[in-house]
Design brief:
mainly beta, 4-stranded mixed sheet
Length: 315
């Protein structure tokens, strides 16, 4: 990885004596992060921007949040922590407003365009009102709308475009990577079997139910009660199903440590066999690329796509 920093005076410096770094990308987390430990013959002025490249392709473009310089007998040891450019949308609060039949690109225009971002968002519309509440970030105002309407995660590319993750076609050649360690995790503490809800204050009880039929197959019984009366009509239609599906996101997880850098896009689908066991319908949700005295390696976190087989019924 090639890492360059740009100071507030406009000086660009390539870091040459790096002894540790960690680059993390996670689906559903707005900002990628990059931490770097390196040595230098002289202290560096205040750093504003950080860029990282892998084989001449930019993979990180962001702002320096923290910089620490320590002088010792060997010279200067420095540490920087940076977040990707999406931090502009996370750190700035969205103006509260109630929109009438907005689109994803209208929200982009109001909350992201002035920061220099471009839009590659899909054409997503609402036929009802959408309320941006006080305290919502600019990223949250856009992402919440897109996720509720489509179930897709919004992310910002290294060239400052807002886009959404699209699930790829399956890949079955994972054997090409040098696997250092492999862990399979089953987490039964979060999946919900049924959500009982009411749509308005006037309803006497929680007579509407959305049930996950897969919960019967795996022997999980976990009920929740939700009052939707405070939400806009269109949001009520999506919140329950998204809540049910998201409870299964961490149900089955693979954690794979691979030698070197893994150049796979987040949200890519995988079907593969390891030690004679099949793992089907897993999606790459997190990459953590690190370098230290043990060399370069990438930790991949994959989560199984679970079909919850939901049904909704009324008492």
């Amino acid at each position: 990885m090639i890492i360059k920093v740009i100071t507030i005076l406009g000086e660009e410096i390539q870091l040459n004596h790096i002894f540790e770094f960690c680059f993390t990308q996670t689906v559903g987390v707005a900002c990628d992060s990059l931490s770097v430990y390196f040595k230098n013959e002289f202290p560096i002025d205040e750093i504003a921007f950080v860029k990282a490249y892998e084989k001449d392709r930019i993979i990180f473009n962001g702002f320096c949040d923290n910089q620490r310089t320590t002088e010792n007998q060997d010279g200067f040891e420095m540490f920087i922590y940076a977040r990707s450019s999406a931090c502009l949308l996370v750190d700035n609060e969205a103006q509260p407003f109630t929109y009438n039949c907005p689109s994803a690109n209208q929200l982009y225009f109001n909350y992201a365009k002035d920061f220099g971002f471009e839009s590659a968002l899909p054409e997503i519309y609402s036929n009802d009102k959408y309320e941006v509440l006080k305290g919502t970030t600019c990223y949250g105002a856009i992402h919440q709308f897109v996720y509720l309407k489509s179930g897709k995660y919004v992310y910002v590319t290294p060239d400052n475009k807002l886009s959404v993750y699209e699930k790829s076609s399956n890949i079955r050649d994972f054997h090409k990577y040098n696997i250092i360690s492999f862990s399979s995790v089953v987490n039964r503490s979060e999946p919900i079997s049924q959500i009982n809800f009411k749509r308005s204050v006037g309803e006497s009880g929680y007579r509407l139910h959305t049930k996950s039929q897969i919960s019967d197959e795996i022997g999980i019984k976990r009920n929740q009660y939700v009052n939707l009366s405070a939400l806009a009509q269109w949001q009520r239609e999506y919140v329950i199903l998204q809540k049910l599906k998201s409870s299964y996101e961490d149900y089955k997880v693979l954690e794979i440590l691979v030698a070197g850098y893994v150049d796979e896009e987040l949200f890519r689908s995988f079907d593969f066999v390891h030690r004679g066991v099949r793992y089907d319908d897993y999606v790459l949700m997190e990459k953590k690329y690190t370098f230290d005295e043990r060399g370069e390696r990438t930790k991949l976190v994959m989560k199984k796509s679970v079909e919850v087989k939901e049904i909704t019924y009324v008492d």
